[in-house]
Amino acid sequence: MEYKYEIHAHTKNTSWCGDIDAKDLVEKYKEAGYSGIVITDHYSPMTFNIWEFFNKRKAIDHFLAGYRKAKEYETEDFSVMLGLELRFYATINDYLVYGVTEEMLYDLPFMLKLYIKRASKLLREKGCLFIQAHPFRKYITRAKPEYLDGVEVFNGKAEKEANDNSHKWATDIKARIKTSGSDCHRESGVGFGGILTKEPIKTNDDLLRILKSGEYELIKNQR
Q: Which CATH class is domain 3-220?
């Protein structure tokens, strides 16, 4: 038996650019035959209201709103896990983080002001994976490979040329991990990417172990 997992998706409950409620997102992925999803809402300056910058707990509560609602619709046959898409102040690069927990987010400094060197170090010390998202999107710059665990080589919103360039760059820098995600923001974005596994993914530990092992296939449904 094979299992399909979406590992790059957003909800309107948290992400300013999202256009699908967390409940509907989960239901659409169930209908599309997936076995689970990682909610990677934007952890970026655009996510938070001004007043939230002065109260980290309220900011993290807001960030977790989409994930927590999606988690309500988890079932025995469909896993919902927490991730994030991190963007720092005054930058447009995005980084997918896998393995993060709610407790970790409350304990860590507000990450928008850390920038890549410090944020990557802190998160990786916590056991997370730090992946550059869609590295050939317009205006994006490629991060130094030493800050990365891997590269998103297929993005469901990217053009084929950008995805091909991402795959080539990941190969050139000998990226340890290559990922695929739909980058879903709305119903029309469901099911373009993800990973295909031989075993179920129920927890962060399962997800990290499988990504590190390379025992998965990339789903690449180019638009």
A: alpha beta
